[in-house]
Amino acid sequence: MDEVLKQVTRARRGSKARVVEYFEVQPRQTLSWRLARDAELRVDEAALWLTREGDPYDYWLLPGDVALLTRGERVWVSSDGERPLEASLTTYRSTGLTQAGRWLARIWPRIARSSNASAF
């Protein structure tokens, strides 16, 4: 299962050309947006709360964690800390995947999460 997730991640990246956007989350502030492209959300300083549309779970991203987000997905992030924290969104240039490849790359992380949850 992990090997397939690595392949999907590699397929998403495709090219080395990337765009990194940094943003700041103020204490007890919630930011929300709908993703225009597949992206990787990274947090380096403190814990960040992530909520994803259609996902029954919320996630605490700890420093160094990366969340794979899919195009069209709506997300909410917030911070519970005492000071602002910096996070980043990384997107990669188009990989030339077929429509079926893009569909698989978009749904595979959810399939992997649900199969891991059913194992417990």
UniProtKB/TrEMBL annotation:
InterPro entries: DUF2917. It comes from the Bacteria. This is DUF2917 domain-containing protein.
